[in-house]
Amino acid sequence: MKSNVTLADVAAGAGVSIATASRALSGKPRVSREMVDRVRAVATELGYRVDPIARALRDGSSRLVGMIVPVIGIPFFSQLIDAVEEELGRAGFELLLADSHGFVDEEVRRLRVLGDRRVDGILIIASDRTASMPSIVNLPDDIAVVAVDRATDKPISDFVGVDNELGIELIFEHLAEQGVTRVGFAGTDDATTNGVERWQSFHRLARRHGMEVGATFRGEFSLESGVAAADHIVDAGPLPDAIVSGSDQIAVGVISRLRERGLDVPKDVLVTGFDGGELSRVYWPTLTTVVQPTSSIAADAVSLLMGRMAGGTSAYRRNRLAPELQLGGSTSRA
């Protein structure tokens, strides 16, 4: 392999001009997807590496995007991170990932660190729908921000996430078809917009479908909350026909604890989730759940971020994407 491979070598190998090779490797527009793949393949074969410092000095851009998530270990967030990283790679950007652990003070520190690193933009899954706002607002003006998955109470940035009400509506339509007349709920508190919207949608749709609301429990997006919810709902009695869960992790915690207490899912009670990641397909019984369009959320969020990084000044957008329902064994008595 030749040492000190230059951009001219890559261009010659791909049969394109140096300018085209540069655009393809930097993720700039006016280059087809096929051309980008060809140029990058040649660059990899030749061992060509872009000097990030030189490019940053030349372009006035670090080509870095930061992303802050509350808990990296949550399966849905891991899936979303992968999709975001793929989208950024196509645009010629690298991802810097930070975990706030769900604490606003940690989120503030992570935002400060990313700002000091002079990232070009930040994607944030806010820890708290109100308390997270000041630190986002106080970021330097030249750092673009897009909120993902969880919105803030006030529109202080663009936002991309799922349509929570439509997701819960899909669940209720399915439960009605199963003859459910009494429902319980295992979700999260008011700290996040997802927690609020799924809780409020649950009550609205229960009324719309004429279903009685049984015991409910609100905690966190975790297995432990699902376990606690199962205990609360069983002890409150009578057992509802179905338990609507605010996430797949919560649903798995609910089902695990119900089993420990001698109850069968779906024979004794139906259980649904929300997210639709790998966990919903590998757990037994498989989950009936709302599948979030992760790839579309990532693509939309990165697209909005790129627009802001390019100097876009239009009104903030709130894009809510439609989910789908995945049927699983947790609601099938067949």
Automatic annotation (TrEMBL):
It comes from Microbacterium alkaliflavum. It comes from the Bacteria. One of its GO terms (molecular function) is DNA binding. Residues 5-59 form the HTH lacI-type domain. SMART domains: HTH_LACI (SM00354). PANTHER family: HTH-TYPE TRANSCRIPTIONAL REGULATOR GALS, LACI-RELATED TRANSCRIPTIONAL REPRESSOR. The keyword Transcription regulation applies. Pfam families: LacI (PF00356), Peripla_BP_3 (PF13377). This is LacI family DNA-binding transcriptional regulator. The lineage of its organism: Bacteria, Bacillati, Actinomycetota, Actinomycetes, Micrococcales. Keywords: DNA-binding, Transcription, Transcription regulation. InterPro entries: HTH_LacI, LacI/GalR-like_sensor, Lambda_DNA-bd_dom_sf, Peripla_BP_I.
